[in-house]
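Q: I have 463 residues here and want to know how they pack in 3D. Can you give me a structure?
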Amino acid sequence: MKLIYGIKDKPKFGQMIVFAIQQLLAIMAATLVVPVITNGATISDGVTNPTMDPAAALFGAGVGTLVYVLFTKASSPVFLGSSFAFLGSMAAAFAGATTVALGYLGLIIGAILAGLVYVVISILVKAVGVNWLNKLMPAVVIGPTVAIIGLSLAGNAIGDLQTGGVKVDGVPVAATLICVLVGIITLIVTTICSTFGKKMVKLIPFIIGILAGYAVGTVFTVIGNAAGVDALKVISYQPFADLVEGGFGLHTIIHLPDFTFLSAFGSFGELSGSYIGAIALAYIPVAFVVFAEHVADHKNISSIIEKDLLDDPGLSRTLLGDGVGSMAGAFFGGCPNTTYGESIACVAITGNASVATIITTAVLAIIVSFFAPFVALVNSIPSCVMGGVCIALYGFIAVSGLKMVQKVDLEQNRNLFVVSTILICGIGGLSLNFGAVTITSIATALILGIIVNQILGIKKSDK
């Protein structure tokens, strides 16, 4: 595709701030929700549930991204955010802990162990190169895998599209049709801006789309509050009310994140060999699964920017950046990081591959984690608005994979069966559980695709 800003380009400062806000909005919802989900995990032995701070996770994502940019020599326009793949691992860290503080320490230990897996693989890749990987994961394998990364998120996008922000007893009260209308307006405005907008408008379609959806949602909510009709209450302004709870003060402006390393401080004496072993079993296998998605994401962004990142800066560097960045992110926010498809889709849709924008986004994530009003604003954006945006984001991830498949000759049965296996297993949600270890449907589909491709690639003369 034709990029408006290449990897090394640096937009004007004012524009870059706007672009960074857009990237931040694209990745923020998912980054913030990982600690929220973990907080809801059931903890055994009467240990109090954790209270992980989403703002700390955002801070950790910013730090992890800067580490990634450093290791990749500012050559890869990807943002790292909280990884959903490690949700089970994070819950296991608390479930096996005798105190909450030890659980937080477990998060850090687990992230270090997972990051070391990346480090070891990167050393092997540095020694033997990446040709073996290109043979193992050609376009016929990677293309449909990238496609199912987007398609597997379709249910999340549609679920959000039908959900408002105001809840009573934990249940959204806004009518589904109203929420869908707000989300569709968000989507349409986003697509019109991206397709027909002039240069600046074309570069920030998500910001404009979110603002449009938020404005329409506000109109419905104001009418709903005035008429006492819950079905029209799309937006919850409770996050803003929480800021001034107890009176206006410094806490209204400044939020000090509860960093993981501070919560874990003083619990080293509680460590045991069995606990560390349990953490290792919970984190290390998942790291190998996420490695497969790391390769798929970098193949995807490579096709978008028309530069093979597995060769330059090299897979060894992207792995090091991802692994060490994940350790750094968990040290502050508790959540191991991973490359974000939403970030890649944002690059694809806007044509802005500037790494300077990614760096600015990372710095902005660190800054806003301390700025309470911005966090409140993001938390007030209703799910239906983000659902409208995510239809475009997740759809572009899927389409990027299908574009790779375009280069594959599907008249050959070998290729047809490989693509079919990956698509059906991935979309069908074939995940495998081995005790506490879960191989995600995406990883399972990729592994099966590789196996089928290798079997069908054996020539009769080789038998």
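Q: Anything worth noting?
A: The chain has 21 helices and six strands. The chain has one domain: 13-457.
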